[in-house]
From TrEMBL, chains A, C:
This is Probable glycine dehydrogenase (decarboxylating) subunit 1. Keywords: Oxidoreductase. It comes from Botrimarina hoheduenensis. The glycine cleavage system catalyzes the degradation of glycine. The P protein binds the alpha-amino group of glycine through its pyridoxal phosphate cofactor; CO(2) is released and the remaining methylamine moiety is then transferred to the lipoamide cofactor of the H protein. It is an enzyme of class 1 (oxidoreductase). The glycine cleavage system is composed of four proteins: P, T, L and H. In this organism, the P 'protein' is a heterodimer of two subunits.
Length: 467, 484, 467, 484
């Protein structure tokens, strides 16, 4: 038992002080007929060395973006994580502390959260941010609930097909037992059409969720769409990619400064967090000042202490479940503090120039790859709309699985088949290109598509090994 | 105390990260993106050099108390030791870096781990079906209530109410509301037990779920658990077990064996996942067979073909499923740590965890009760709630005063003013990963504090960089960001 | 420039304050004819992401004990490093601090060093320890210099062939321009023979270095050898493996408690430090009280501060180069503080039971493997002496290179050929087995030796992949 | 201030690490080992639980000042920022875990890195041959002197003496003695420059090596470098360059170009390897062509066969080599970090490092000289030495008082009382990785201190856990271990 302290002598002394003869006697608080009368059926304990060997063995049974060049996106991205982010986030004082209920001994977390909130408002162009939610999808769902609550009486939520399918599914679950209906907007051309939106919004519309860039990587006409939604009295919820804000207009600025989105949500994994098979990630949520008391989750505020020093505390807690119980804005308790810290460190390292350069590299490289893949003749672009860092291609051979398998064989995680979510796009693949991908990798991926001869591809692969 | 913000440290032109020059032909951005979509300038992030960033956050970190550095008896939070071996495993290339949409053939190791974890959690809970998807305890509660709602809907039953004891975590009623139920509060007795009279008065055929925390939030095992479960079940309702206190009963008793139909886990409490300053956690849930088909998709399944190595895959074909409760698979990084913790302990080790947690809590209770009364009595499971009511009445010393003064002694405060059923509550959960020496020192500190000059206590803490922040001002005129 | 701060405005202000027009003007302190008039011929700068990709590419061109089961020893061992050791040693306050010259802001390092010294005295049974030297070989050389200085007039240093050849080479270099001659003791049976030692020591002998276990893994008759050396008035320098002290007698106890070795040196890499291709490692040196003022390197002592609190300081500094210059006991300045910290954490985690269990696993597993390999018929034991965790085998096929290549092909770093250092053992291999090796690995290594058919071996290898 | 030692925390029976049970047949230990070799009991190590170990060392760490947390202007030590990216690279599987006796075919990536590093160091120094083997700066000095001795022996010359300026690092004379030379001290002037008269008086045909630090230890570039080198060379001697101060001249001038025949590097100073609380460092050396054959073996060599990828190997066939100076290849972990640092900077970046280091030092000098005289004058390279002599005389305030008081302000002290040629010396090296803001704050602190009550200073520091340890008592009656 490496993590417990009590020696047999300790136990004896403690039991005597308690006034019982054994630990068993203490456990008699649990009625006998509830007691488990056998050991749990679990594998026997592993020492650290065995655990280490075991987990390493499991890890070697996986391919990963470390071993394979990764072109998978779809809401989770292989962006570069600077070493400083890991170094800071692995400090025990950060990752082994709890929710900062005692502000005097939690200024580290509280100030970092305040900095996070400040960075998010600067990123989005909105007034306030909370200190994190679970992930992009639940942040979107919480934003929808905020909008429904804010626009009393309105019950419709317009979701375009170009919004991440798992976000749409999550929102549907969140609405499943509540008054609030999803109105689906089809996007046959890969983006929301202004006319279609105009036809979908009315006095029942609480909000419209506008993804930017959307799930297909396409750029929505956010200015126009925002105007349409606002004209109908609906709130606009932006679902943005934080990296894209190195080049794209901020949600708060859509359709003109201060006239933009009312709430902006994002998956913050791109900002310095590892992919770790889907989570924990970082739900980001910012909004206009007027919505501040409807925000779900923790918020940190600045104040002064009894000596007059600037300091930070959890604030507006009357929104929260631990105070308001069934009247709370949300049931959120644990948030993603450590991931928000990672995003804070990441953005501090990047600065405005680093963010812009990162976004530009994604933009340029993804367009280059799309072009190379289309030139092969096997693929064609599906949507005409401009894209940021990912794009949808149609395999003229209708063999997406084959393409992905060929990629694997040559050291690539080549793309995401879209058939699971979009049956009509069963012959299509979503390909994402981050700043990490080198031209050499892009050219090799294009080469295995162009070449049907196996030998060439193998040669390309060996080239990598000697690089 | 230096509260310089990142923004205060910024100077135009500083850089901490240099990106490579573009190695593909660069096209004018206007040819790639519509003019209206392009930002006029980059967001006003601070401009810093790398050493600044490192020093800023290194020094910030030391403003926190943490389990790595301090005793942290924050009741209901199970602030136990966070094994470094789990951090190492979760960070391995091949585990910590997998993309959520990789082909299943490329993640057989990860799926095997997750499948086994599903099985472990089911075995520990006595509830055969498991979903690893929820992102946190409260999210698990909500997911379970959605499952319950789907179950009743499927059966054509109109059940609108959820029973919640007044001593429950605030997440319980909040989750019930989000799942579309109304909450009905059940009173508890001074002992912390459910007031059976009140319970029976409120139990009817509209009750969908009784959300019970057992051991409850004063740390006692619900004496009427059997009756509660039987009577709820007799009315066709379901029992939901708030798993926050699982640390008390691992291998001792199983929720599925004492009547629960559903439960969540807090792997970041029970299974030592670090809390990360408030998160991330995870909230896997286990349910009975009859509720299994409503769980969120996907679930990891295993196929054993003859004489072949088993093949793991994700089962999305769950037509009765409530659907997704979040994006991607789940908070896998937290789940990997939980898996490591369970593998490290095995059956005997897990039971010993609970035994030692209960021993430590009872020992501390036995030392403290003489000067800080513990209304619930002389016994507890893994935590107990002392009351400073008498001190408050007699000497004006509040639970908050005691909590703040403890910080001066280098110990994190217990949870205060929860549960609301205990006046001037101090909820102490020492966990099994603390020593008798630490508990003795803590008891002595508490005693010493109860004897100290109340004035000294009202203004405590005295040794920390800041003291008693003005929370009222913070909430009244909120300053929520450094606006550039 | 990610690590510098000065903006053009800063530079201008600073130059003005200095009273010069440019940095160039400051550099004119360097005479013009010395100035480099071209850029250094170095590769262009890499951003962090590029550096990361580059170093990962270099790493994938190496096989390693992470990817291959490692049976290499010879003074550097693949022992298990608990995660706590890495977590502590990667705290910036430890690894980015300097020599603790200012005790008030270095109690962390000073106390850890004091604990290290205390642990080393308990490990060795000797009175005092310094706070580290470069590695085992230089610790041995420094010990020899200590012995020469202590036994004024005596100039001979007896080194057996069973001492690590690189230790012998290092000692020879250290003695190259000093009065002090090496007397070599051949060890045809793998250990020092008492009679041979008796014949080599005399009134000229300053010291005898006794390795335990020795380079061949064999157990020397340390008690008897110590008595012989001491009878001749020579000092005994033990060169021990710290892990072996979980089962073997402490150097200070050789030939009876308090009558043992006078100085004990070791390579401390085994105690929680990574292999990192040969360094940095940890030179350990402990000795009798009487030699304390001849110790090279830093020593930490306990004292009290002006308020009467226990605290720790660098002490006995008059031995050292920064005070005594050409009269110093050694020129050592930088030591291996971080590695000593690692050893301290490692030993704190192991405790007496963990150290004993580790030693026992090495002992049992190495004997098991030796037996399995010999049963194959291809190998035979070379020396009759008992061994601890490594052993020398002779390849009856005299194809050591073939054995090692076969091993590589099947995922093993199988052993160290001895021919480089011992031409007479050119057909021999040194094989080491730590607690990390599993029976399955030992059996597979034995299997590839037994099997001449390639197919079987490949099958054995695939078994690993699916484990 | 808690000074509990590991031993104070120990209780019999506690365990932090569980080893697996033996999976091979266990034989009685007496059948494997001779009775006389077996220990009667295990060493008396402390017995601890893992959380204790983590908390103990976490809290110990915060008792240190470090570059990650504080400005650390410790002259001559180049306490610059230690990039985290280098730590990551050095810890990679495949770089950080290689066994030193792996077959060369299995370490081509590592050998390529080390080969390139040899080339980089030669280019930066202007000295064509390189050995990466020495373990630290002082070890590099010693190795170079062994090389010199071997060179002269090979030429049949009897040279017994090494010239060392009185301002040199103590390692210089200490290394000279260990290499079998006698040292002859050369005086320096108040400006820090070599006293040429004294130098010429001591230069003769028995001089093997002049060990010069340039920029020297007061931070000025030796004005008579040309004459010194010419005159030593004319007498057949060699110039050794103590490379501690290379941070001042990267890409600006090269030791090989200003007359050095040999030099060492301190990669943990110049190339940002962290200092680790006193080590590890590394001490690679570069030498001229004529000295190359005496370098320690092995050296990494590269073979380019036609149209093939280059093959790297270790060259042990060096018959004139002085032999080994340590075991295994070298302090590779430190060298990997140096390699990363050089690759991160490239030619322009390295030069900029020195430019900024010189700018920062001169700026600080310009701010400080008004109240803390700098005897060497108004200019320096990367560091300078101020003197508190006047303060000492007039107000009784010593360099040590100032150093100790700085700790109260959250800044590490400069190097004090070195070089011994400057009375009440305070040697400041700000490095290029500090900001103007930090330098301004530091200068203000220094000024404020010089105005403070001397009594306050004599008893400083006041805010640290301990203050002014009794070093005399420590040395007189040494307590060097906690003896069980």
């Amino acid at each position: 038992m490496p993590f417990t302290y009590n020696t047999p002598e300790d136990e004896a002394a403690m039991l005597a002080a308690i006034g019982v003869g054994s630990i068993e006697e203490l456990l008699e608080q649990v009625p006998a007929d509830f007691r488990l009368d056998r050991p749990l059926r679990l594998p026997a304990a592993l020492g650290e060395m065995e655990l280490d060997a075991h987990t390493r063995r499991l890890a070697t049974r996986n391919a990963s973006p470390t071993s394979h060049a990764c072109f998978l996106g779809g809401g989770a991205y292989d962006h570069f994580v600077p070493a400083v982010v890991d170094a800071i986030a692995s400090r025990g004082e950060f990752y082994t502390s709890y929710t900062p209920y005692q502000a005097e001994v939690a200024q580290g977390n509280l100030q970092a959260m305040f900095e996070y909130q400040s960075l998010v408002t600067r990123l989005t162009g909105l007034d306030v941010s909370n200190s994190s939610l679970y992930d992009g999808a639940t942040a979107a769902a919480e934003a929808v609930l905020m909008a429904l609550a804010a626009s009393k009486g309105r019950t419709e939520v317009v979701l375009p097909d170009s919004l991440h399918p798992e976000y749409r599914q999550t929102i549907a679950t969140y609405l499943s037992n509540l008054p609030g209906q999803v109105v689906t907007l089809t996007t046959p051309h890969g983006v929301i059409e202004a006319e279609a939106l105009r036809a979908s919004v009315n006095e029942q519309t609480a909000c419209v969720v506008i993804p930017q860039p959307n799930f297909f990587g396409c750029i929505e006409e956010a200015d126009e769409l925002t105007r349409i939604a606002h004209e109908a009295g609906a709130l606009v919820i932006a679902a943005y990619d934080p990296i894209s804000l190195g080049v794209l207009k901020r949600p708060g600025d859509w359709s003109g400064e201060g006239a933009g989105a009312d709430i902006a949500v994002a998956e913050g994994q791109s900002l310095g967090s590892p992919l770790q098979y889907g989570g924990p990630y970082l739900g980001m949520l910012a909004c206009r000042e007027s919505l501040v008391r409807r925000i779900p989750g923790r918020i940190v505020g600045q104040t002064t202490d009894r000596r007059g020093n600037r300091c930070f505390v959890l604030t507006l807690q009357t929104r929260e479940q631990h105070i308001r119980r069934d009247k709370a804005t949300s049931n959120v308790c644990s948030n993603q503090g450590l991931l928000a810290l990672r995003a804070t460190v990441y953005l501090a390292l990047l600065g405005p120039t680093g963010l812009r350069e990162t976004a530009h590299l994604c933009l340029q490289k993804s367009h280059y790859l799309a072009e190379q893949l289309c030139q092969s003749g096997r693929f064609e672009k599906v949507f005409a709309a401009p894209t940021f860092k990912e794009f949808v291609l149609r395999d003229r051979q209708a063999d997406v699985a084959g393409f992905i398998n060929d990629g694997l064989e040559h050291g690539f995680l080549a793309g995401i088949p879209l058939g699971r979510w979009y049956p009509e796009l069963a012959d299509c693949v979503l390909i994402s290109v981050t700043e990490k991908r080198t031209r050499e990798e892009l050219d090799r991926l294009a080469a295995i598509v162009s070449s049907t001869r196996h030998g060439d591809a193998i040669a390309a692969h060996s080239a990598l090994q000697t690089a | 105390h230096d509260t310089q913000l990142l923004f205060d440290l910024s100077k135009p032109g500083r850089r901490a990260l240099r990106l490579p020059t573009c190695d593909v032909p660069v096209q004018p951005i206007e040819t790639l993106l519509p003019a209206g979509a392009i930002a006029e300038q980059a967001p006003a992030l601070p401009e810093l050099a790398e050493p600044q960033v490192v020093r800023h956050f290194t020094n910030l970190s030391t403003q926190n108390m943490s389990v790595d550095s301090h005793f942290y008896p924050l009741g209901s939070c199970t602030m136990k030791h966070n094994p470094k071996r789990n951090e190492r495993a979760a960070g391995l290339a091949g585990l910590g870096d997998l993309h959520p949409y990789q082909p299943e053939s490329t993640i057989q190791g990860m799926l095997a781990l997750l499948y086994d974890l599903q099985e472990f959690l089911s075995e520990i809970s006595g509830l055969p079906a498991c979903s690893l998807q929820p992102a946190a305890g409260a999210h698990g509660e909500l997911t379970a209530l959605w499952v319950a709602a789907a179950y009743f809907r499927d059966r054509g039953e109109q059940r609108t109410k959820v029973l919640v004891p007044d001593s429950a975590h605030g997440t319980n009623p909040a989750s019930a509301i989000m799942a579309g139920f109304e909450t009905v509060t059940v009173k508890t007795l001074k002992s912390g037990a459910v007031d059976m009279e009140d319970f029976r008065a409120k139990l009817d055929d509209h009750i969908a779920v009784f959300m019970i925390t057992n051991p409850n939030t004063v740390g006692i095992f619900e004496p009427a658990m059997r009756q509660i479960a039987d009577e709820v079940h007799a009315r066709g309702g379901l029992i939901y077990l708030d798993g926050a206190n699982m640390n008390a009963i691992l291998g001792v008793t199983r929720p599925g064996d004492f009547g629960a139909d559903m439960q969540h886990y807090n792997p970041h409490k029970t299974f030592s996942g670090p809390h990360g300053g408030g998160g991330p956690g995870a909230g896997p849930i286990c349910v009975t067979e009859k509720l299994a088909s409503y769980l969120p998709a996907p679930i990891v399944v295993k196929r054993n073909d003859d004489n072949q190595a088993p093949v793991y895959s994700l089962d999305y074909e769950r037509p009765k499923s409530i659907g997704r409760v979040r994006s991607f698979f789940g908070n896998t990084g937290v789940l990997v740590r939980a898996y490591c913790y369970i593998r490290t302990h095995g059956p005997d080790g897990l039971r010993r965890v609970s035994e030692q947690a209960v021993l430590n809590a009872n020992y501390l209770l036995s030392r403290v009760k003489h000067f800080l009364p513990v209304p619930q009595g002389d016994r507890c499971m893994h935590e107990f709630v002392a009351s400073a009511k008498q001190l408050k009445t007699e000497r004006g010393v509040s639970a908050m005063d005691i909590a703040k003064r403890l910080l001066d002694f280098g110990v994190h405060a217990p949870t205060v003013y929860f549960p609301q059923t205990v006046p001037e509550a101090l909820m102490c959960e020492p966990t099994e990963t603390e020593s008798k020496e630490t508990l003795d020192a803590f008891a002595e500190m508490l005693f010493r504090i109860t004897e100290e000059d109340p004035e000294l206590l009202h203004t405590a803490p005295h040794t920390t960089a800041i003291s008693r922040p003005d929370e009222v001002a913070a909430a009244r005129q909120p300053t929520l960001c450094h606006c550039g």
